[in-house]
Amino acid sequence: MPEPRPPEFILSYLVLARKSRPQTFAEVVGQQAVVRTLRNALGQNRVPHALIFSGVRGTGKTTLARIMAKALNCEHLEDSEPCNVCQSCTEIMSGASVDLHEVDGASNRGIQDIRDLKENIRFMPTSSRYKIIIIDEVHMLSTDAFNALLKTLEEPPEHVYFMFATTELHKVPVTVLSRCQRYELKRVSRKDLFDHFASLSAKEGVEIDEAALNIVVREAGGSVRDGLSLLDQIFSYCGDTVTGNEVVEVLGLVGQQVIVDIAGALLAGDLAAALAGLDEVYRYGMDIKRFINELLSWFRGLVVCSVSNQPELLLNLPADELDALRKTTALYSAQSLARMFHLLMEGLEKTAYSTRPRFAVEMVFIKAVQAGEVVPVADLLGRLDDILAGVALPEQAEQPRQPVQAQKSSSASAAVDRPVGKDKPEPPPVEQKKKVTDAPAVEPDAVSPAREREEEIPLPEEPPAVQQSHAEPVEQKKEVVPAVAGKDVRADWPEFVVYVRDRIKWMAATLQRASSAELKDGRLTIVYDDSVDCRILKSKENMIPLTEFAMDFFQKSLQIRFKVPDAGCETDSESGAALQKERRTLANDPLVLTACEIFNGQVGDIRVGPRFRKPLTGAAAQGKEEL
After folding, report:
1. Domains of the chain, first to last
2. CA-closest candidate to residue 381, choices 611, 541, 562
């Protein structure tokens, strides 16, 4: 039988987290602001009776509390640093001090534990100057325990100091926080961790390359203890020499280059390469959440590099990774990078709740790559209008006559439009003449009566009434009102749909799905049973032409409102008020008023839409004054 191992071999090895625990303020990694405050408080004799240290795991909360306990009881305190050689310091370091009470808040969280603690601190310290009470994870105490501690915290005995440590400061009651001096410890920076781990590796006699140290620092996430635990595992696997590839293998990670390749494939639109990289990640056995965090962190770095001139201040990354980010950023715009980051962030968050996370990630990749190929709905509708505009529509055998219309135009001289013949292009705006008698004479027998009415009659540039208005102000100005009454919405709604179909076919099909329509108090309310049917019409670019069509057809100033059983789809047309104002402006245009006065006519239809629209036909044209 083999000889049993000697007793001294058992538990003779201390892990790096315990072996390298700082014993003085100078050995604390990072946390320079907190260390300076504590040392100044010791030097000026301004140490509060209750302190609370908060921060993420492994940043030095309990370590600082123990160093403060040694400094308060040290017999040879020099420059606010404990000597670590006196009786009090050695007892605290060995864990044999009877005047230092370390309490685990997670295990001793009841009110009875706090009562026992309060009973203990009534007595004077045995061998030290002060009694020190350290409660780790203090947020785990029960509400009754906190309440029992309040009075003691507010007025403790002069020989007692309280020091608390917690990773969740928000769970500590405000009544407790107000009685303590708070010290919030931050995550240790990459540079401080890199230097600390490199120094420890040299002391342990292990040669570790820069790539391996960068991986350990990245996985530590700002926690000294997490990084030291990883170093212990790596030293056991690699021995005296550690390389980056060995660290990737022992920690079960995927190389950074794999993340870079997948990100590049997604940005380039190479879906096959992205899925192949994902398959490699799964075959290697990397945890899905870890992979998602790595990928999102890389895209965050790309976005930061694209918008910041000094990304190193925001990204805690080594120089080689920053260079790789800058090279990728130079190939794409900031908008493309932000869009891809948003799509991945929104989609990959849902994979945590999926029973098949790989399938979910693959679908996110597909959507992210194909997002650039999606055409907006507005563009599709515009293309549809272009296609419909190019289709030859059947012309009517005979064009109806049209009365004087006030038409929206960039020129005031284009106030009167004429019907266009079948084979003739639309004539330019009528040029104004100084006198009606200047128009060319036409033989009576050369032109038919119908043709004679279609001839263009030039308008005088300044009739006598207008010239007189330049000299003397007009006492009263009459507002022109259309002579023909508007149509009834309910009775003529099918005809209105046909009117819209001649102009925009998809809009007419959408209007046809409406359950009802009603005009009341200047509002045209179109009712739909499903909010999806009116969603496209609600957009601003579609509301303007729809309002123009309604005003042109019904010859009324109105605003359009959509209504469905769900009130969330109810909306008013923002363009109605502007179009109403435009109609009034056109009706009272000086040129229109002059034409009505000269020819003894009235304004019929007021059109605010494009000039190429066809005039109303059928009953709508009956009873109107013609020129």
Report:
1. 16-184 (3.40.50.300), 190-251 (1.10.8.60), 256-373 (1.20.272.10), 489-621 (no CATH)
2. 541
